[in-house]
TrEMBL record:
It comes from Nocardia pseudobrasiliensis. Coiled coil: none annotated. InterPro entries: Hyd_form_HypD (IPR002780), HypD_1 (IPR042243), HypD_2_sf (IPR042244). GO terms for molecular function: 4 iron, 4 sulfur cluster binding; carbon monoxide binding; iron ion binding. The keyword Phosphoprotein does not apply. The keyword Ion transport does not apply. Pfam families: HypD. One of its GO terms (biological process) is protein maturation. Keywords: Iron, Metal-binding. Belongs to the HypD family. The lineage of its organism: Bacteria, Bacillati, Actinomycetota, Actinomycetes, Mycobacteriales. This is Hydrogenase maturation protein HypD.
């Protein structure tokens, strides 16, 4: 296949669905790790086209959703300081902190700017030597290389008025944490292709061995996802638990060596808090000792800021696949994309927002009786 729309071909999708239906002899619960895959599954109705034997559980792979509330509050605190230019990708501006969001800080006079690359923020720092420029560096292994490169460049060019507010998280420790949970129902994983484009697949065999779960690396288009599910079901039915790469057009086994070298130089592995899940050991990155002077938390002394989550929001359970978004009592009532209570309703990759956007407003039992 040559063009993107070919990966949505309805005839091929139907054939894959038929094969999945013919292969699955019992119920299987498969988690798609990535929020981009969740969005694609709901947008294209893949979960509704699958046979009843296959349940898709939506995982914690939305970077905006898992960024802890206290990190959002730290961003708000830094962005409110005089002399600061606070730069972020646009999706973080509406994420509510304890009392406000970055849009509110901007409306109150804070210099908050949307950029399309961390290098844009570095350029702002170079052009404004009398200001402190901070970039909000969140996300998984996918966004980390560009952030690492920017800090490397800041050091190399001697741009000392630039810093990074870091909240990077890693997929493999999250898979381990999900499997360690006593309430875990997941029997197999679709791993995120773009993460593996950077990191390769070598981190996954220890997980398939330890937890005896298949992990199939796949992409984001409907046929990618269906092929990933098909391969996963074949493994489950055969009692196998292996790593398979169903996204070879983008993922090499060794990942991107240049990006990995940059990540190793700029970041150290650290424990990280995941919103709604809690601290997962060795599940994130922080700036390494060599680059610590570019750490915004340290520069602005916001490391001790601690905040509490909304008592109504059940995004933690959504992120762990324990409930579907419309099982939260606030879904579509107190909580909508215009008035989000939790990050999974704010982000376009969040499961709650995807369910709301594509009108999955009823519980399955309600829909059946409607
Ligand atoms: S619907 Fe809103 S309140 Fe409920 S879990 Fe999702 S984000 Fe939280």
């Amino acid at each position: 296949m040559k063009y993107l729309d070919e990966f949505s071909n309805p005839e091929l999708a139907k054939r894959l669905l038929d094969r999945i239906r013919a292969t699955a002899t019992r119920r299987w619960a498969i988690m798609e790790v990535c929020g981009g895959q969740t969005h694609s599954i709901i947008r294209h109705g893949i979960d509704q086209l699958l046979p009843d034997t296959i349940e898709m559980i939506h995982g914690p792979g939305c970077p905006v959703c898992v960024t802890p509330l206290e990190v959002i509050d730290k961003a708000l605190e830094i962005a409110s300081r005089p002399g600061v230019i606070f730069c972020s990708f646009g999706d973080m501006l509406r994420v509510p902190g304890s009392e406000r969001d970055l849009f509110r800080v901007k409306s109150e006079g804070g210099d908050v700017r949307v950029v399309y690359s961390p290098l844009d923020a570095l350029e702002l720092a170079r052009a404004n030597p009398d200001r402190e420029v901070v970039f909000f560096g969140i996300g998984f292994e996918t966004t980390a290389p560009a952030n690492a490169m920017t800090v490397y460049q800041a050091e190399r060019l001697g741009i000392r008025n630039f810093s990074l507010l870091v909240s990077h998280v890693l997929v493999p420790p999250a898979i381990a944490a999900i499997m360690e949970s006593p309430s875990c129902r997941v029997q197999a994983f679709l791993a995120a292709g773009h993460v593996c484009t950077v990191m390769g697949t070598a981190e996954y065999p220890p997980l398939t061995e330890k937890y005896r779960v298949p992990i199939v690396v796949t992409g984001f288009e409907p046929l990618d996802i269906l092929e990933g599910i098909r391969r996963t079901v074949i493994q489950l039915e055969a009692g196998r638990h292996e790593v398979e790469n169903a996204y070879r057009r983008a993922v090499a086994e060794g990942g991107n060596p240049a990006a990995k070298t940059m990540l190793e130089d700029v970041f150290d592995i650290t424990d990280r808090a995941w919103r709604g899940i809690g601290v997962i050991p060795r599940s994130g990155w922080r700036l390494s000792e060599r680059y610590r002077e570019f750490d915004a938390e340290q520069r602005f002394s916001v490391g001790d800021l601690h905040t509490a989550e909304s008592s109504i929001c059940r995004s933690g359970e959504v992120l762990q696949g324990l409930i579907k978004p419309h099982e939260c009592a606030a879904f579509g009532k107190q909580c909508t994309p215009r008035n989000p209570l939790g990050a999974t309703m704010v982000s376009s990759e969040g499961a709650c927002a995807a369910y709301y956007l594509y009108r999955r407003l009823e519980l399955p039992s309600e829909a059946a009786h409607a």
